[in-house]
Amino acid sequence: MKRVVERFISYARIDTQSDENSDSCPSTTRQLDLAKVLKGEMEAIGLDEVNLDDNGYLTATLPSNTKKLLPVLGFIAHMDTSPDMSGKNVNPKIVKNYDGKDITLNKSQNIVLSPDDFPDLKKYSGLDLITTDGTTLLGADDKAGIAEILTAIEYLINEPGIEHGKIRIGFTPDEEIGRGADKFDIDAFGADFAYTVDGGEEGELEYENFNAAIAVVDIKGRNVHPGTAKNQMINSIHLAHEFNSVLPSFERPEYTEAYEGFFHLIDIKGDVEKTRIRYLIRDHDRKKFEERKKMVGNIASQLNNKYMKKLVEVSIKDQYFNMREKIEEHYHIVKLAEKAMKQAGVVPLVRPIRGGTDGSRLSYMGLPCPNIFTGGHNFHGRYEYIPVRSMLNAVNTIINIVKIIPESY
C-alpha cells in the first residue's frame, strides 16, 4: 500500500499536461520528464527491454518464468494529464480515515469537496483518500494506473514463485487529446491481448465505449455598418446560434447517461464575418452514431437553402469506434478480469465507457484491450480524488490476472 501511494504522489507532482494545439509527438516535452523517471525506475526494479522512443512511448518486458506456452499479456496506461485544467504544481493531500463530511481542499479559496455535491464520497467513510489542494487536477487519470501497474510488476519480480508468462508494459503520451495510439507499435509490443488501467471507481470493467467524432462548423457572414445593415448584413454569430438551436436540446452530456449518446458543444468563436463551432458527437450504437453525423450535415444544408447562400460548411472527423465489436471476439479476457477482481474482493462493475481510451483504438489496430479501474473519481478537475484502498485493489487485480492465466491454458 505504501509503495503504490508513494509512486502515485511522486508521479502526480510532475507536470505532464498534453496540448491539442501542438503538432509534435509527444505534444509537450514535459511528458518526457515523467517518461525518463519511469524508464529509470523500470530498469531499477529489473525489467528487460526498457525502451523510450523518440515519440515518448515507453515499453518494457517482464520475461516469462515458465515453460508453459502462454499468451503474451500487456498492461497499458498513459502519462499525460488533461489540457482542461493545470497539472503544474500538483500538491496531493492525504486525508486519513475520512469522516464522511466535507473536505476543505483549500481554505483560503473556500474550495470544498463535499458529499452533498459528490455522493460517491460517502462510500469511502473510514478510508484514506488522496485529494488535490483545490488549485489543480490530481492526475489519477492516469498516473494512478501507472503506479498500480509498476507496483504489481515489482511484486511479481520479488515473488519469483508466482508462475507467469511474458508480460509487456506500455506507457503512452497524449491519450487525453486522442493521440495515445497514433504511434503505438502493435507488432513491436507483441502482446496477444492487453488491459488499459485507466478506468474510474473501484470495480469498473469496460469493453464498450462511444463511437466518436468531432464536427467543425464554419459559418460565413457579411459585415456592413449597422446603420445601413437592413437586408445586407449577415451576422455569422446569429447563424451559429440558429444552427445550435436545431440540435436536440436534451441530447447533451448534462442530460444523458449509460448508453445515451449526445452532441457536445465544446467551442464557439467568432464575429459578424465568421464563426466556428465545434461539437463532439458520441453514441455507443454505430447506426445512431452515423445518424448523428448526418443530422449535423443536414442542418447545414437547411440553413444554406433557407438563406440561398452557401454560408455553412461542416467537416466531420471520426476519432474512434466502439471496441465492443472487437472485444466480443475475445470475450474470455473480460471474464478473466472479472474473476481477478472477485479474487481481490472487488465487485465487478461491467459498464460502458462514456468516453474513450487508448484501448478502443488499440483494439481496432489488432490488440484486444478492455479497460480496468484505477479507483479515481472526478477526473480532470480540482475535485478529483482517489481512495487508497481502491489503488491497492487495482494492484491486486493486476496480480490476479497474471496468476489466473497459467491456470487457464
Question: What are the salient characteristics of this protein?
Answer:
409 residues; alpha+beta; Aminopeptidase; Alpha-Beta Plaits; 2 domains; four-stranded antiparallel sheet; 10 helices; 31% helix
Describe the structure.
With 409 residues, the chain is of the alpha+beta class. It has 2 domains: 2-208 and 322-408, Aminopeptidase (3-Layer(aba) Sandwich); 211-320, 2-Layer Sandwich (Alpha-Beta Plaits), CATH 3.30.70.360. Helix content is 31%, strand content 22%. The protein has 10 helices and 17 strands. The chain has helices at 2-12, 30-45, 140-158, 186-189, 236-246, 286-307, 324-327, 332-343, 358-365, 388-408, and strands spanning 48-52, 58-62, 73-78, 93-95, 103-106, 111-113, 129-131, 167-172, 193-199, 204-206, 211-220, 262-270, 274-283, 312-320, 349-350, 371-373, 385-387. The strands form 4 sheets. An 8-stranded mixed beta sheet has the order 1-2-8-3-9-16-10-15, with helices on one face. The protein has a 4-stranded antiparallel beta sheet with strand order 12-13-11-14, with helices on one face. Strands 4-7-17 form a 3-stranded antiparallel beta sheet. Strand 1 and strand 2 form a beta hairpin. The mean pLDDT is 96.
